[in-house]
Structures are given as C-alpha cells and as structure tokens.
Amino acid sequence: MKYKDNIQGVVSLQPDYLGFIFYERSKRHFEGTFPAIPDGIKTVGVFVNAEQSFIKSTVEEHALNAVQLHGDESASYCEDLRAVLGNDIEIIKAFSISDRFDFNNLNVFTPFCDFFLFDTKGKERGGNGILFDWNVLQRYDVEKPFFLSGGIGLQELNQVQSFLKSKAGEYCYAIDVNSKFESEPGMKKIKELKKFIELTKT
C-alpha cells in the first residue's frame, strides 16, 4: 500500500493484512503516516536487507504488527531480529522459488520465523506479477505455515481454490496479492480486490 485514500478503500474490504514497503529502491516505497486502520487488520512492514535498528524504529513509529523480510536475510539475522522485536511482532521470511528450490534449507529458519512467504523468482524483489509452478510446493514438508504469493489475480482464482484443497495447500495460511490488482505500483483496484475476496470465501 502507498496512497492514503487507496489504503482507506482497501481497509473497507477488511483484509487480514496490509503491507507497506520500507525499501527505497521499490516503486511502492511508503513514506508518511498511516491513515486510521482498524485493530483487526494487521500492518506489515516489508524490508530488504535492512539494519535491524531501522526495522525496530519503523515498527515502533508505525505500530506495525509484523515484518516481512524480502532480502537475503540469514537464519542468524532472523534470530537476532526476534530478540530485538520480541515475540509480539510476527516475522515473515520471504523466499523466491524456482523449480530446484530445496525446502530443507528452511529448517534453520523455523525457530525464529512465524511464517514463510513463497514468491516468484524474478528481476525485482517481489511485485513481478509472475506465477511460479505451485507443484514445487508438493515437496514442502516443513511444519510452518506459509503465504502464497507471486502473480496472483482474478484469473488465478480457480487455481488458488484448487491449490488450497490439495496436499500442498495444507500449510497455506494466507494468499498474498499485489501487482495483479494494481493500476500503477501501489495503487490497488478496489472493485477487483473486493471480488477476489468475496469469491475466495465462497
């Protein structure tokens, strides 16, 4: 999310999470203050290889409920960040998925992260608007819930519903949507989002 009026429009749909990118090289980089956001919606700060002191100050400034790490952060980084933030702030570690991704590499992260997020490996750190092959997740056997991300829009609704009913969808905690619902980076299409949310709940 980026623009205040647009944020309020999305808030009216009552999503579970709202993401704000605190990475200056992103086209969706957020600056300023949040409009009123109900307590039932968790706010997430997205960071890329950031100093932990910057993450901590940003969490405090915006009263964030969660942080998403979308860079090359190591397990030891996540361990240190957990100590810095405490247990009340959710830590979501993002991974770019390719056909040869080794899920065994995630085991060292599990003690320090609340969720994983699986996104498409692309030229940008997220927001590429491209699906990855969800069949890769048939190999997922780590007992940690994950967010499914990467190029998900209205056209992928049937695939999402099928995936959630599959064995691979057993640990799918949330569906992360972004660029497929934008008219420009950071500007969400409210009507299309509303339709997606309504249809995923049926």
From TrEMBL:
Keyword set, alphabetical order: Amino-acid biosynthesis, Aromatic amino acid biosynthesis, Isomerase, Tryptophan biosynthesis
Domain N-(5'phosphoribosyl) anthranilate isomerase (PRAI): start-end pairs: 5-198
In the UniProt record, the signal sequence range is none
Quick one: which pathway?
Amino-acid biosynthesis; L-tryptophan biosynthesis; L-tryptophan from chorismate: step 3/5
Q: What class of enzyme is it?
A: isomerase
Catalyses which reaction(s): N-(5-phospho-beta-D-ribosyl)anthranilate = 1-(2-carboxyphenylamino)-1-deoxy-D-ribulose 5-phosphate
Q: Name one Pfam family in it.
A: PRAI
Entry's InterPro entries?
A: Aldolase_TIM, PRAI_dom, RibuloseP-bd_barrel, TrpF_fam
Which Enzyme Commission numbers does its entry carry? 5.3.1.24
Q: A single Gene Ontology molecular function, please?
A: isomerase activity
User: Which family would the database say this protein is a member of?
Assistant: Belongs to the TrpF family.
The family database entries (HAMAP family) matched by this protein are listed as: PRAI
Q: Tell me what this protein is called.
A: N-(5'-phosphoribosyl)anthranilate isomerase
- State the species of origin: Lutimonas vermicola
The gene name on file is: trpF
